[in-house]
Each structure stands twice: as C-alpha cells, then as structure tokens.
UniProtKB/TrEMBL annotation, chain A:
Keywords: GTP-binding, Nucleotide-binding. The lineage of its organism: Eukaryota, Fungi, Dikarya, Ascomycota, Pezizomycotina. This is GTP-binding protein. Residues 1-34, 323-345 are annotated as: Disordered. It comes from Mollisia scopiformis. Residues 24-34, 333-345 have a biased composition (Low complexity). GO terms for biological process: cellular response to starvation; negative regulation of autophagy; negative regulation of TORC1 signaling; positive regulation of TORC1 signaling. GTPase involved in activation of the TORC1 signaling pathway, which promotes growth and represses autophagy in nutrient-rich conditions. The keyword Metal-binding does not apply.
From TrEMBL, chain B:
This is GTP-binding protein. One of its GO terms (biological process) is cellular response to starvation. Component of the GSE complex. It is found in: Endomembrane system. PANTHER family: GH16429P, RAS-RELATED GTP BINDING RAG/GTR YEAST. Keywords: GTP-binding, Hydrolase, Membrane, Nucleotide-binding. GO terms for cellular component: endomembrane system; fungal-type vacuole membrane; Gtr1-Gtr2 GTPase complex; nucleus. It comes from Mollisia scopiformis (Conifer needle endophyte fungus). InterPro entries: Gtr1_RagA, P-loop_NTPase, RagC/D. GTPase involved in activation of the TORC1 signaling pathway, which promotes growth and represses autophagy in nutrient-rich conditions. The keyword Amino-acid biosynthesis does not apply. Belongs to the GTR/RAG GTP-binding protein family. The keyword Oxidoreductase does not apply. Residues 1-28, 47-69 are annotated as: Disordered.
C-alpha cells in the first residue's frame, strides 16, 4: 500500500456526510418480504419465518453497515389497502429520497397481471419522486417451481417485468429462503450500496497479493453477506461458483448453534477467530474491523498461514479507516512497512 | 474418500437429499478402519469358550457376513425406518414423512455413496464409515416368532436389539411385545443388549417425558421379574429425530459394542485433564455418532456444537477442497520455500479451531483417520496456550491410532 497514493485518495479528505440510504421493500401481500428481511438482517432461520405475521403499514428498521452506511429499511406491508395509501396520501413521504427499491414478486402468484399493474404504478411514483433510485426485482419462492421449469418461467417473468420498468434498469434475481440464492441477491444489492467500495476492493487485492492468498472475502458482521471479494488467478479457477452464498449460509447456520451454546443473542458476534488447515488448502476467518469479518483462503503451509494471519491483523487498522472513516488513524506509515517485512520473513 | 478433506459433495443448503437409495448390503473392506466385525468375532470366540452351549453360532446366509448387527424393531409406524434414514443416510428429518412403510427386512450397511458429481470421488468408491456394521430394519407387522423364521439367522450375530416405542401413541402393546421378545430371547441369547428408544418425544414436555419413561421401565421390569428374569440388560433412551438426541442414543448403543472403549476413554480423560478441555468427543465423521468421550457427563449443547462444527468443516472443504492445477502446486514447492507441500505443514491431517466470543472459548477439531475426528471444547481463555494443546492433541491422536492398531494385530 503506497502511502502517497493513499493521502491523495484518502476518504478522510472528503467532507463527511451522513450516509443514509432509504431502501424500499415492496411487493404483494404474502410474497415474503418480511421473511427475507428477517433472515438476512435478524438472523432468523428459514423455518422461523412461519411465525411472522402480516406487516401492518410500514415497518421501519435501521441497519448499520460498514463505511458509515446506514440502511433505512422500509418494509412496506403489501395489502391492497396499504398499497393504495402509499400511492395516494403518503406518495411523497414514501417515494422521495429513495436509494433502492426492492420489489418482490411471488412466483406462485395466481394473478400476475395484477401484480404487474401494481408494479407499474409503484414505478411511476418512483420515477416522479426519486428518478435516480436503483431497482431490484426478486422473483421469490423459486423453490415451489419444478426445477426443470425454473429457468423458463423465470426468464418469462423477467422480460415481462423489465418491459414495464420504464427508465429504470431493474436487476432481476431468482430467490428462495430455503437455499443460498437469497444471500446472492442481497449480497449484490448491498455490494452496490457500500460507499468507497472500490477503494476497499483495491486494498483487498493488494493485501491478497502480499500474503499470497488464493481468495479473500470480506463479510459484513451480522448478516454475513459477502461485501467484497478478491481472488487470485488460481482462486478464480474454483469450480464452485456459488461459494460466497454458500459460505454465508454455512456460517450463519453455525451461528445459530453457537448462540444456542453460548446463550448470547443471535445478532451478537459469536466468534472471533476460526482457522482450518486441510491438505489442499488452509483458511481463516477473523474478526476484522468493527463491522466486518475477513476470510482468507491460502495454500497449505504453516509459514504462509501464520504470516498471512499476522499481516491481516496489521492491515486491520488500515481497513478500520475505510470501514468507519470518522476516525483517522495516525500510524498509517508504520502499518505499511510492517506488512511488507513480515511477508518476507 | 476423506470426508473432512473433500466435503461430502452434497449441498445441505438446498435440502435436496441425493444420497443413495436404500440399498442392500454392500461389503466394504477397509484396511485403515478398525472393524467391529473382528471385534465381534473375538467376543464370540470368548463367549464360546466360556459357555459352548449358549454362544451364538455364526448365522448362515449371504447377508450375515459376520458384521455386528443392529436390529431395529418395534410396532409399525413407530419410526424405525425414519431413524435409520436420518442417522445412517443423512435424510433431513422432515422428509421422513414420505417414507413408505417397510414391507420386508431392510438390511443396510453403513456406507454412503455419493450419486453425482466429481469423478474424483467416484474413483474412490464413496465414503464409508468407521463402523462396519449392518442395520436391519425390521417391519413392525411381521411376527418373527413365527416358526418359519430362522431365529438364529436373525438374532445369531446381533450386536444390539433396538426396540422403538412411539411415546405419543398408546404404548401398552409395544411394551407387551417387547416383554414377549425379551422373554423369548433370554434363554438362547442372554448377551443381547436390548436398547429401548422411547421415540417421538419432541412434542412432549420434559416432565411428561420422564413420566412416560418411568412408566415404561416399571412395566417392563415388573413383567420380566414376574417371569423370573432379573437384571436383563435393558437400557432406555428418550429420542427424537428432530434434534440430536437420536444421535446421542445411537452413540451410547454403539459404544457398548466397542471393546477397547475404556482405553479410548482413558486417553480422552488424560487429554482433557492435561489440556484443560471441558469435553472431548471422538466422532465418526459420516454418521456424527461419537465413538467415545471423556468421563465427564455428556451435555447436549456441547454435543450439538461439536457435531455441527464437523458439518461446517465438511461444507467448507466441499467449497475449497478442489484439486489445484499441478503448475500451481509446483510453484508453491519451489523457491523461496524449496520444500514439498507436505513438509510445509505441521500436521498432515485436518486441523481446525474456532474461538467463540464468549470468554474466548476455543473449540478444536482434529482429524484422526479417514473416519474419525476428535472434537474438543476448551475452557475459557485457553486459546493462548494453543501450541501446547496442539501438541497434547497430537500425542492423544497417536495413542488412539495405536490402540486401533493393537486390536487389529490381535486378529
């Protein structure tokens, strides 16, 4: 990490503004909005969502993310009466300053045309008040469709919906709470929201090159979504393409067990360090900055492993700065030199 | 194939069960595993010496190739097939709803062959378990006391008889049949362990569970002592397939069939004392049944977290355990290291450790051989002494392997 380039592009040099993104979660009643929100942000398991009742009006929640990003999540109850209310009386209140609209379609819906109609009017309201918002459409409950037909039905729906999306470039995802597809969708949505992400990514890349990692993943602390990742030329050859989602899923499930064991609430952090040394690879997951965990996949070898872990701890201060830029660290020069020397030993 | 190193190539996440269809006995001989078969033969030889008249004769028939056998019996619809599917075939518990009722005796070998993916695995012939035994799922509606049945073929080599009782149903008839069975078996096969699984207790409150257990125990003991059978080897377990209790019960059943259990336990006790572990389990990785544990009482939470931790390792190794290209490996073995990759690692077997935030409590996992893994829960704050602890674990693993080696040599 070159200190000079650092000072030029330092996030600390920009005036800091409150980064609050308004995220609207909308869709027909019973399409699974609250279920997915609970799984991603409140550490529910898929089975637990049966307990959830209908959302009345708007359920507001604030989710803290890295880089001073606070998601202002509006979970909007989807019953027709509420929908009409959003579109008429509360129109300006709901649709102004929207950063992201996530619209959930139920694949099993009987009356798809009517869903489309509602979607049209929501899009119209959005283009009126916040034309710069990004739109994501989730085709949900994909598990209910026969696997062979999934692709066709999904493509069908997506083309139809996209044709009704006006000027918005709606990004589609097929999701289900019963597998890792939900994590994939949300990880990409979050990925687009995180500020100074490109900077985090270049830093990850440099760290990865220094410690000779195969892959580095940055997880958000409580949702365990992959915020950013880097892979070496070898790491990119990994045949498992859905590995990020799967890792999120595996670790989140294990957090349920640990929380049963320790008695700590599910939302709190459960572990500080995990290391694995197998024949083909070694890996560690460490608590990294305030809001993140770092997972590093390495080739086997005791020296490589220990050096990499040490270096990651050293790099921690650097990333802490990017995570919550409010505090400017003073000893930046020291960290850089420390990182390179220990890599050489 | 090694489960810890390569994963089980099955996605647990989407819940699809693509394990094998229930299959007939597949003979799998492995050199590395201690086979219970041998042990059984030894026991039988000893029993024969002691009492030539009562010792069971080796049962005939191709299915009875001398593997110790677990016999699952009980009333129909009490959950026998569900138990064997969940424990030995990793079927998700809620899918057992769709199991057909069993019409014939189902003979299962404890082996798991992945159906799809990866030629790499197929070459190795699938995974197998440490425990080389058969599970016979016995249909509830069959009256095995029928003279057409060859009693010797059924009970001849039995390791344990597991009697499943549905706790949510009227169990009087089941108890009567169990008594009848035990009374019939006692004269000829007095060494058979009878394990009663009081099953489907997930829907019952704790108090009610204990009440039922007491009631069933009472009825069985009364009936047996009325008929002059005292101290019959009957044990009771409260089980459910929706939590870990069924694995725990099976662990206890299987531990009784392991002859050098005291040795293993002593080794684990030593390890716990020396390294400050609260609990140590020796797991069979595939079935997640524990073969041995230290002598402190087993608590469910620590068993759960240990067995789930194995899952985590297996799942992650499934993602990252792919075969790297040769050039890459060569470049890693070249300068500046100039060592073979095997020599760069301290321990050739899988090692893993997770440190919980709660009091920095470490949980350690260490592969013992192809089938077994040692999982330990440490005391708070013992992570700082990790180097010493790793050395202790190493020594223990060496001891365990030696213990298996000795039983093998005695063959």
């Amino acid at each position: 990490m070159d200190p000079q380039e650092e000072s030029v592009a330092s996030p600390a040099s920009e005036p800091r503004k409150q980064k609050k993104k308004k995220v609207l979660l909308m869709g027909k009643s019973g399409s699974g909005k609250s279920s997915m929100r609970s799984i991603i942000f409140s550490n529910y398991v898929a089975k637990d969502t049966r307990r959830l009742g209908a959302t009345i009006d708007v359920d507001l929640s604030h989710v803290k993310f890295l880089g001073n990003l606070t998601l202002n999540l509006w979970d909007c109850g989807g019953q027709d009466a509420f929908m009409e209310n959003y579109l008429s009386q509360q129109r300006a209140h709901v649709f102004s300053n929207v950063g992201v609209l996530i619209y959930v379609f139920d694949i099993e819906s009987r009356d798809f045309d009517r869903d489309l109609l509602t979607y049209r009017s929501i899009i119209a309201a959005l283009s009126q008040f916040s034309p710069s918002a990004s739109v994501y459409i989730l085709i949900h409950k994909m598990d209910l469709v026969v696997p062979t037909q999934r692709e066709d039905i999904y493509n069908d729906r997506v083309t139809l919906i996209q044709s009704k999306s006006d000027n918005f470039a709606a990004t589609p995802f097929a999701t289900s709470i019963w597998d890792q597809s939900l994590y994939k969708a949300w990880a990409e949505i979050i990925h687009d929201l995180v500020p100074n992400l490109d900077k985090i990514e270049t830093h990850l890349g440099r760290l990865g090159a220094i410690i000779m990692a195969e892959e580095i993943l940055l997880f958000e602390r409580s949702s365990f979504l992959v915020v950013s990742s880097w892979a070496s030329s070898i790491g990119k050859q990994n045949p498992t393409t859905d590995r990020f989602e799967r890792l999120s899923n595996i670790i989140k499930n294990f957090k349920q067990t640990t929380s049963r064991y320790t008695g700590l609430p599910k939302s709190s952090e459960q572990f500080v360090l995990m290391e694995m040394k197998l024949q083909t690879f070694s890996m560690f997951v460490i608590k990294f900055t305030t809001n993140t965990y770092l997972a590093v996949v390495l080739p086997p070898g005791e020296t490589t492993f220990n050096c990499a872990m040490e270096n990651c701890y050293i790099a921690r201060t650097e990333f802490e700065d990017l995570d919550s830029p409010a505090k400017k660290s003073a000893d930046r020069g020291a960290t850089t030199s420390g990182a390179t020397t220990s890599a050489e030993t | 194939m090694n489960l810890l190193q390569n994963g089980r190539r099955r996605s647990k996440q989407d819940g699809t069960y693509n394990g094998p269809a229930r299959q007939g006995p597949v003979r799998h001989i492995s050199t590395a595993s201690l086979s219970l078969e041998r042990v059984y033969e030894q026991n039988r030889a000893i029993a024969q010496k002691k009492d030539a008249a009562t010792a069971p004769a080796p049962a005939p028939g191709p299915a009875a190739k001398g593997k110790p056998r677990l016999l699952l019996m009980g009333q129909r619809r009490s959950g026998k097939s569900s138990i064997s599917s969940v424990v030995f075939h990793k079927m998700p518990p809620n899918e057992t709803l769709f199991l057909e009722s069993t019409a014939r005796v189902q003979k299962d070998s404890m082996q798991w062959v992945p159906k799809n993916e990866n030629i790499y695995n197929m070459l190795m012939g699938g995974y197998s378990s440490f425990m080389d035994f058969q599970v016979w799922d016995f249909p509830g509606q069959i009256d095995f006391m029928d003279p057409t049945f060859n009693l010797d073929a059924i009970f001849g080599e039995i390791g344990a008889l597991i009697w499943v009782i549905d706790a949510q149903d009227d169990y009087l008839e089941a108890v009567n049949r169990l008594n009848f069975t035990v009374l019939n078996l006692q004269p000829n096969y007095p060494n058979v362990n009878v394990e009663v699984f009081i099953h489907k207790v997930d829907g019952l409150s704790d108090d009610f569970r204990l009440d039922i257990q007491r009631d069933i125990m009472q009825r069985i003991q009364d009936e047996l002592s009325d008929n002059g059978v005292e101290n019959a080897p009957i044990n009771f377990h409260l089980t459910s397939i929706y939590d870990h209790s069924i694995f725990e019960a099976f662990s206890k059943v299987i531990q009784k069939l392991i002859p050098h259990l005291p040795t293993l336990e002593a080794l684990l006790n030593n390890l716990c004392r020396a390294s400050g572990f609260e609990k140590a389990y020796l797991f069979d990785v595939l079935s997640k049944i524990y073969i041995a544990t230290d002598s402190s009482p087993v608590d469910m939470p620590s068993y759960e977290i240990c067995s789930d931790y194995i899952d985590v390792i297996v799942d992650i190794s499934e993602i990252y355990g792919w075969a790297r290209p040769k050039e890459y490996i060569e470049s890693l073995e070249g300068p500046p290291w100039n060592h073979k990759l095997e020599d760069q690692v301290a321990c050739k077997d899988a090692e893993s450790c997770i440190v919980l935030s709660d009091g920095r409590r470490p949980i350690m996992l260490r592969e013992v051989n192809k089938y077994l893994a040692l999982v330990m829960v440490g005391k708070e704050g013992s992570y700082s002494k990790m180097c010493v602890i790793t050395e202790n674990v190493n020594a223990t693993v060496g001891g365990l392997l030696k213990a298996f080696e000795i039983t093998k040599a005695r063959k």
